Amino acid sequence: MNLLFLAALIAVLAVIRWLAWLSLKSTNHLIARAGAAATTGRLGNRFSAARAGLARLFPRSMAFVEARLSPERFTGLALTLMVLAAVYIAALLGGLVDELLEADELIAFDRWVNASLSAVRTDEIEHAFAFITAWADASAIVIVAAVTTGLLWALRHGYLVMPLWVVVLCSQLTTYAGKYGLDRERPEFLAEVAATTPSFPSGHATSAIAVYGFIAYVLSREAVTVRRRFEIVFWSAVLIALIGFSRMLLSVHYASDVAAGFLVGGFWLLVGFAIAELIRSRHHSGAIGAD
Fold it and tell me: What dotted CATH number matches 74-290?
């Protein structure tokens, strides 16, 4: 059973990795073709004429829209997409909290997932996932964040330290506010792992996506090829997903607890990205001005 579970997990990861890389290449190709079509040929001419006409009729509105959609600056399209993603994540989290408070279907689903995982809960698998879950324990997260801070200073990327700790501290504050505000009981513990705080949202899931997600951002930002960036992001996502799954397999969290933790951590991760990129752009502008 253990070997079958491990083989199935490896096979699933291999298929997901292949599909993710294929999707990334296809998306990049489609974006490139769409960009070329919008700037050249008959379609490009029509688009340029329409944009010029709107600029004459609504100069201030068009200037604002173009500034928000400009791909050349972080404060343009990138920041706009981040804000939209953060708003969407916040809406999803609000909907999840509402479902938890008012809908019995979510509670029934959580209990069904927890019961279904009993089929793979053997001693060996529990020991393996207890090791994985420890990577997002409070002590481990503090050590990882502290080591990352030291490395950032040593590598002269000190401007990333503040965004890192904004993500870490704000995600934890939000998580514990949710825990004690909602005060949800945890599922019945197994002997391997126990916890004392309320269940919703999962602090381990929050910490995993906040800290390891930010580290993946730092590493991928310095990577020189698309393939390297993909590998960094993909395997970081695998680690984060395994940590979240470990909380359910070890029966210390329900599925909705983990989902909420990912949403909380993801929201603050986007905030950290935005802060880091704004500081980076200011540094770059200052360096150009000094030259």
Answer: 1.20.144
